[in-house]
Amino acid sequence: MNKYYNTDDVNSMFGIKIPWALVQDKVFKGISPTGKLLYGVISDLIEIAEMNNLRDKDGKSYVNFNLKYLADIFDMSEDDMNKYVSELTDVDGKGNGLILIKQVDEQNRIYMYRFGDIYKFLKGK
């Protein structure tokens, strides 16, 4: 048995994807490590929603937003989780974020902007 990771293991790895730019670019310096991990979790949930054709009437993928659920995943209070969600909804202090939370029919939804597009926008400032 080989206990070290090698190229045969690549396809057997499951995990959360976080863009390198989110980790290393100064544009995102205001997002905490927990906020960046949260972005990866939301991205994964959006990917699952997309696979299940969960889209709004305009064809945009979303996930139902439940602060308690996210707080439970991270084993923290809802107040603390709300702080990390806020980091993602307002990256630049001017309301431009990586995600959008929108209330539709008494249900909160999370929409995720295309990372490349919002990254270029924030970088161009």
Sheet with most strands: strand arrangement: 1-3-2
What structural class do the secondary elements suggest? alpha+beta
Stated plainly, the CATH topology is called Arc Repressor Mutant, subunit A
Radius of gyration: 16 Å
Low-confidence runs of at least 5 consecutive residues: none
Number of strands: 3
Written as H for each helix and E for each strand, in order along the chain, the element string is HHEHHEEH
Summarize the biggest pleated sheet: 3 strands, antiparallel
Can you put this structure into words, describing what you see?
This protein has helices spanning 20-24, 33-51, 67-74, 78-89, 115-123; strands at residues 63-64, 99-104, 107-112. The protein has 125 residues and is α+β, with helices and mostly antiparallel strands. It has a single domain (31-123), classed as Arc Repressor Mutant, subunit A (Orthogonal Bundle), CATH 1.10.10. It has a three-stranded antiparallel beta sheet with strand order 1-3-2. It is globular and about 55 Å long.
Short description:
The protein is α+β, with helices and mostly antiparallel strands and 125 residues long. Helix content is 42%, strand content 11%.
Which terms would index this structure?
125 residues, 3 strands, three-stranded antiparallel sheet, 5 helices, 11% strand, Arc Repressor Mutant, subunit A, globular
